[in-house]
């Protein structure tokens, strides 16, 4: 398949591209800027600002779009995030319509539907810091529902690094009460499976996994949000 990946240089985007290349897919990698590094075989880097540019020409001939757009964890950015999930998604949908692409998978968050997951020392600072981002994600999902695309909005819990696994839990809409963490590599794996297998169309699968207690400690929360 020929896959267009937005947020290609981000943590999830890089993992998704590596997994897709290993399966023989062709990648159109879209970012506002690129350096002069030689891309891996099978990757065509294209310069595209999702907030400003005409996206349609970049999607010509693609079988699906995977949006790994994200805003990072800087406090100032979280409190006043750029409209990547809203205006960015609207522009992607318009570009898909122009290019005749119907399949799109995006990253949302389980917190769109439930903000009571994870230990209290995570919920209190995280839900305050992420409020505006979560609201944007909810608007993004509304845009998808109003479109005629075959969309999937993957809703991970609190994302973390780590190699992909085979034992993460996928449930409709919301992660289980006793889980909170989700590996970015597993998120990438589920996104890729959605386009390969045609699963979770017009749905919001939630993703999480049981991890070591240290990954949900007060220290882990402080490192995540304070650096």
Question: How would you describe the overall organization of this protein?
Answer:
- There is one protein chain.
- The chain has 227 residues and is an alpha/beta fold.
- It has one domain (2-226): NAD(P)-binding Rossmann-like Domain (Rossmann fold), CATH 3.40.50.
- It contains 7 helices and 10 strands.
- An 8-stranded mixed sheet has the order 3-2-1-4-5-6-10-8, with helices on both faces.
- The longest helix is centred in the middle third of the chain and has 16 residues, at 84-99.
Give the count of structural domains. 1
SSE sequence, one letter per element:
EHEEEHHEHHEEEEHEH
Count of discrete alpha- or pi-helical segments spanning 4 or more residues: 7
Helix content, binned percent: 25-40%
CATH topology: Rossmann fold
**Gross CATH architecture:** 3-Layer(aba) Sandwich
Query: Main β-sheet: number of strands, strand sense, barrel status?
Result: 8 strands, mixed
Cα-based radius of gyration, to the nearest Å: 17 Å
Chain-averaged pLDDT: 94
